[in-house]
Amino acid sequence: MRLSDYLKQLREAPYIRHTLPDDDYATVAQALKLAHPEWVEGWFWPDTWMYTANTSDVAILKRAHQKMVKAVDTGLERPGRGAAL
Hints:
Order of helices and strands: HHH
Shape: globular
Radius of gyration: 14 Å
Number of domains: 1
Structural class: mainly alpha
Number of helices: 3
Largest sheet: none
Number of strands: 0
Helix content: 40-55%
């Protein structure tokens, strides 16, 4: 699923505290303080969308991004366990 699809789902979710002013990737990158804002797409883990009421959209995106970074870092630490990088 693309980031734009996730942002649409977040925007439509009724119990999320919506803090992002728009769904522009630059806005997301700025809110998350990403080091490489041009690399936003593909850096959000897909199964981190469970949340409690009043969780902010930014908090959910931060958690999804952190989990993806950790997964990539873990994969890079274990060469030979899967596809070659």
